[in-house]
Amino acid sequence: MKLTDEELRNLRDAYNVQKKTQGRRKPDRNGDSIKVTMTFEEWLQVWVDSGKLDLRGNGRGKYCMARKSDLGNYALGNVEIKSCEENSREAKLGRKVRQCTRTVMSAFHTGRAKDDVHKAKLSEAHRSLPNVKCPQCGKEGRQGGAMARHHFQNCKEAEL
After folding, report:
1. Which long-range contacts (C-beta less than 8 Å, at least 24 apart) are formed by 45-49?
2. Strand duo 140-142 + 63-67: pairing
3. In terms of C-beta density within 10 A (0-12 exposed, 13-18 middle, 19 or more buried), how is residue 38 classed?
4. Fewer CB in 10 Å around end: N or C, the chain?
5. Residue 18: how many CB atoms within 10 A of its CB?
6. Which of 40, 64, 54 is nearest to 7 (CA)?
């Protein structure tokens, strides 16, 4: 497979980003830090051998370089190219479901009345916002909220 200079430069940038960001990731299941120990040439050869170099990326239908069993370093012999969906699914295996998920939190807050202290704080915060004037229709109101939603770029009086 013959790559242009620009494609090689972009791939080298991608390799460097992966190498740099691995140090900031959480440790693997054994508590070991995750490092990229392959050279750029080895990293590129793994991608070329997989035949999926042009499908690299994040998200559905794309492929990523993954560690076998999500353990150890990104090293020759310990990596494989898999779909992002498969890698994400495998990463979640064996982990405890978090107690505080979005659905639990939204169920907790749904329908709860705000107490008077909370209402007073919200009111004070709203009153402290500066007044702004819509240049399209001239209406004045507090910055944000309904003014941002219905005026300025979204104003009905705006010239089309």
Report:
1. 46/76, 46/79, 46/81, 47/11, 47/81, 48/1
2. unpaired
3. buried
4. C
5. 15
6. 54
Does this model's pTM top 0.70? My answer is no
User: pLDDT tens digits, residue range 81-135?
Assistant: 999 999 888 877 766 666 455 555 555 566 677 789 988 998 898 888 899 999 9
Burial code of 108-121, b = ≥16 C-beta within 10 A, e = fewer? eeeeeeeeeeeeee
Beta strand 131-133 pairing with 140-142: antiparallel
CA 125/CA 69 separation, integer angstroms: 50
Distance CA 80, CA 59 (A): 17
